[in-house]
């Protein structure tokens, strides 16, 4: 958890495959703790070929069932099927936008939102922006993308910096 906090969380990323990975992992977290998902991250990376979007989009029901039964991922069939449908939705987005990156980062005008919270209790679970992005993703066929999951995703990929202001990893302290 500490390594994730220090090296990944709230660090802006503009890599389609990494964005897709974190979207899938955030969806897998629904109803669970992030530490459970991080503990299974390597199993997800192995099962989904490092979250290769094209590979994931072509997975069959049988292949998803084999992953569910034979790998160390979270065993929820709906969450696993969401990886496939989200990959298909990302590929569809790429025909309309240059990339998944371009689609997502337009919501923050290409710039990270930097919050200056003094205490973790101030950090919201969702915002109007996460509600809008969630709604837009759902319209495009994405699954497990509710506004709370999407706010967490936006933090994870650095669209939002929600490190508390005293944290050495807050943008103003780097």
UniProtKB/TrEMBL annotation:
Entry's Gene Ontology BP terms: base-excision repair
Keyword terms of this UniProt record: Metal-binding, Zinc
InterPro entries: Adenine_glyco (IPR005019), DNA-3mA_glycosylase (IPR052891), DNA_glycosylase (IPR011257)
Domain of life: Bacteria
Binding positions for Zn(2+) per the UniProt entry: 5, 163, 167
Keyword Signal listed: no
Entry keyword Zinc: yes
GO molecular function, one term: DNA-3-methyladenine glycosylase activity
A Pfam match: Adenine_glyco
SUPFAM superfamilies, sorted: DNA-glycosylase (SSF48150)
Name of this chain's protein: DNA-3-methyladenine glycosylase I
Taxonomic lineage of the native organism: Bacteria, Bacillati, Bacillota, Bacilli, Bacillales
């Amino acid at each position: 958890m500490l390594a994730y906090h220090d090296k990944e969380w709230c660090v802006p990323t503009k890599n389609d495959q990494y964005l897709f990975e974190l979207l899938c992992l955030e969806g897998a977290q629904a109803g669970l703790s992030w530490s459970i998902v991080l503990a299974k991250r390597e199993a997800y990376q192995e099962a989904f070929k490092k979250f290769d979007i094209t590979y994931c989009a072509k997975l069959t029901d049988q292949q998803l069932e084999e992953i569910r039964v034979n790998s160390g991922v979270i065993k929820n069939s709906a969450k696993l099927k969401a990886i496939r449908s989200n990959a298909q939705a990302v590929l569809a987005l790429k025909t309309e936008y240059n990339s998944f990156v371009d689609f997502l980062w337009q919501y923050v005008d290409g710039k990270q939102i930097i919050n200056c919270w003094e205490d973790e209790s101030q950090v919201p679970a969702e915002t109007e922006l996460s509600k809008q992005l969630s709604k837009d993703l759902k319209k495009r066929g994405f699954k497990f993308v509710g506004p709370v999951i999407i706010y967490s995703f936006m933090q994870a990929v650095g669209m939002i910096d929600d490190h508390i202001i005293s944290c050495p990893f807050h943008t103003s302290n780097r």
